[in-house]
Amino acid sequence: MSPFRYTHAIVCRIPDSYKTAALGLSEPVDLAKARKQHEMYVAALREIGLDVIELPADEKHPDCLFVEDVAVVCNGTALLTRPGHPNRKNEVEKSLHLKTVLTMAGPDVICVGNTPDAQSILKRIEREATFRYQTVTVPDMHAANVVFANGVLLHRSAEEYPESAKIFEEKLSLWNLKPVTFSELEKANGSLTCCSILIRKTRHLKNIM
């Protein structure tokens, strides 16, 4: 079975506190618009065959919608993390994390931004990896963050990033493409991969050691 086949997704609804207290807010948030965009994102996950589990919003945690930060799922086992905080900002330079600059856009395709940092990371991966990946480079950093699951590619919409969307249509048309608008979540450094934990439920757990 492909490693990009999933059965479930975990998401969390947006609290009122997101509007004013989310970390990294760059500009005022339209909360109603943010919730609508999130609802469309969740609907897209359901459309690609995922059973979506929606957690209630937690007003004490403005960033609770960014569920990717709290767990890593490996062979049916969830490894809980210690979410980042401003005092951890020096752990990495310039990029929030690896998926800020590149993500998987297919079983053997890496989608990467065209910034010097992104290209430097890509070159290191190509130098160290034993597998030869294909690459798709997009001009917009935020558009490099995509979700590939069940043969479908969720990517940022042409409304937001027309040049990048055109590249997806030209080079990745073999997949079912689903554009998603995410402007209000991007204002708090949110991206498509941030807002869900994808799970492939298996009948038998595998040893992860």
Automatic annotation (TrEMBL):
Record's keyword terms, sorted: Hydrolase
Tagged with keyword Hydrolase: yes
Example of a GO MF term: amino acid binding
A GO BP entry: arginine metabolic process
Superkingdom: Eukaryota
Family from the record: Belongs to the DDAH family.
PANTHER family listed in its UniProt record: DIMETHYLARGININASE (PTHR12737:SF9), DIMETHYLARGININE DIMETHYLAMINOHYDROLASE (PTHR12737)
The name this protein goes by in its record: N(G),N(G)-dimethylarginine dimethylaminohydrolase 1
Organism the protein comes from: Portunus trituberculatus
Gene giving rise to this polypeptide: Ddah1
